[in-house]
Structure formats: structure tokens, C-alpha cells
Amino acid sequence: MIYLQLFWAFFQIGLFSFGGGYAALPLISQQVISTYHWISQNTFTDLITISQMTPGPIAVNSSTFVGQYVAHLPGALIATFGCILPSCILVSLLAYFYVKYKDMKVMKTILSYLRPAVVSMIAISGISILISSFFKDSLIGISYIRYHAIIVFILCLILLRKYKMNPILVMVLAGISEVVIQMI
């Protein structure tokens, strides 16, 4: 039963995650946290981090991670297949129709209306990740602020935006900073 649930959950994610991986994050969160309760919000944040650090699309990496977490290797394979199957079918169909009708005004209009929806989905995911990164629940249930995470976030923004530093190097430096803080 778990294999069917994994396939169906990630099939839906693959089917409705228009706009790429970041746009899929709310769908992934809804399925794996709210609907099936496979992982917690903190584990979801770790999942996003791991998915960003590994090569490949974030939705596919997430499906593999959750499948492995829930049902080991068979779960990883089934969840990943469920995630990519709709894309394979839809992209093949869309490529055919796009090539055939790319100059039609209605096609251009549809694409222009999808863009703001995709941007809003990305923004919601970013805000959720920021909140779970900056605030941590204590043993008594009151959130406390993770000042180190906020400082690392600001420094990473500066390194990425102002100095155009390689994102991989920025992630490595952020990881090293956390190790150093934990050792202190």
C-alpha cells in the first residue's frame, strides 16, 4: 500500500508542479507533511537542503529522498518514477503542440498568465523555508530565533548577489560555518 501511496503522491506532484522545482515545493510539502505525514517540517527543510546540494531537479531529488526515507530503495525508485512519469508524457505532448501552434496568440496569453502563479508558489516556498530556518522550537514549545542562521543567510546573500560567488562554494562555506559554531 505504501508503494502505491508514494507513486500516487509523487505522480500528482509531477503532474501539477508547473514552473520547476521551487514551484513544486508547496505541492511536495502538502503531500509529504500534511496529507501522508511521512516527514516533519524540519525534515522537509533538510530534504530541500539535500535536494539543492545534489545534482538534478529538486522535485525528483525530493521524491527519491522521501521514497528512501519511507520505504527504502523500492520506495525511492517508485516515488521517483511517479514524479517523472507525468513530465515525460506532458513534455512530449506539449512539445508537439508548441511546435505546431507556437505563434498563436492564445498560447502566448496562457504562458503569460502562468508566470505570476509560478512566482507566487516560489515565494511561498521560500518564506516557509526561511521561517523554519530562522526559528526553532524549544523543548517548552516556544520558538527561539537562530541568530547564526540569519547572519549566515545575510552573508550568503551578499556573497551571491554582490560578489557573484559560486553557489557551491557559498554552500560549502555555510556548512563550514555551522561546524565551527558547533565546535565553539
Automatic annotation (TrEMBL):
The keyword Cell membrane applies. It is a multi-pass membrane protein. It comes from the Bacteria. It is found in: Cell membrane. One of its GO terms (molecular function) is chromate transmembrane transporter activity. InterPro entries: CHR_Transporter, Chromate_transpt. The chain crosses the membrane at residues 7-28, 76-99, 111-135, 141-160. Belongs to the chromate ion transporter (CHR) (TC 2.A.51) family. This is Chromate transporter.
